[in-house]
Amino acid sequence: MTTKKIAPSILSADIMNLERDVKIAEQGGADLFHIDIMDGHFVPNMSFSPSVVAGMRRVTDKPLDIHLMMDNPDDYIKAFVEAGADTILVHAESTKHIYRSIDLVKSLGARAGVVVNPGTPLEEVKELFPVIDQILVMTVNPGFGGQKFIPGMTKKIQRLDQLRQTSADDDFEIEVDGGINDETIVQCAKAGADIFVAGSYLYNGQDGFKDRVDTLKKLVED
Predict the structure, then answer these.
(1) Scanning 6, 61, 171, 187, which has its CA 20 to 30 A from the CA of 137?
(2) Residues of the binding site for substrate
(3) Which residues take part in binding substrate (predicted)?
(4) Rg of the Cα trace of the chain?
C-alpha cells in the first residue's frame, strides 16, 4: 500500500516569511512541498520563479513538487531542475508535445509527472502512464488558491486508480490539488489518491498547522 502524503501548497504561504512557513510546515509533518509556477498566460495569475525554488532548496530537504502552469514548459524545465526541483509536473494542455516534455524532465534526473485539468479526459494522457512517476488531477480549475472542490473529480480519480491497477507497467502516484480539506480528502483517498495538496486549509486554520496536518493524515490512514 502506497504511503499517503500531505503536500502544503506554497501559494497559500506568506511569501514575505517563506522560510518561517517552510519550517513550520516541516515541523508540522509535511511530507513534501507543492510549488505552483504560473506565467499569466496559461492561467490568469503569476507566481514564483526558479530563484524561489532555489531559496526553498536551501532551507529544506523535503521533496519539492513543481507544478508548471505555463505555456512552452520545455523552455523552463531545466532551470527549475537546476534550482532543486525533485518532481516536475507539466500540464497536458500546455504543449503539443507532452511526451517530449516528460522525456526532458527524466533526462535531467528529476521525477516526471503530467497534470490534467478538470475537463481533460484521462484518455489524452493514457499513453504516458508507463513512463510517468506521478499524475496530478486538478480538482479545481487551475490558477487561484481557495477554490471549491469539484465533486465529480472523485470519479475521475477512481477511474485513474482502476486503470493503474490493470497494468503491471503503470507505477505512478496519484496526486490531487484543489479544495482539499478535512472533508474532501476522505473522498479522494477512498477514490485512490496518494498525494494531497492543501493550501488554504493548512495555512488559514485557527487550530495550528501541525494539528491540521495530523487531522488530514489520520483521515487518509483510517
Answers:
(1) 61
(2) 9, 67, 143-146, 177-179, 199-200
(3) 9, 67, 143-146, 177-179, 199-200
(4) 16
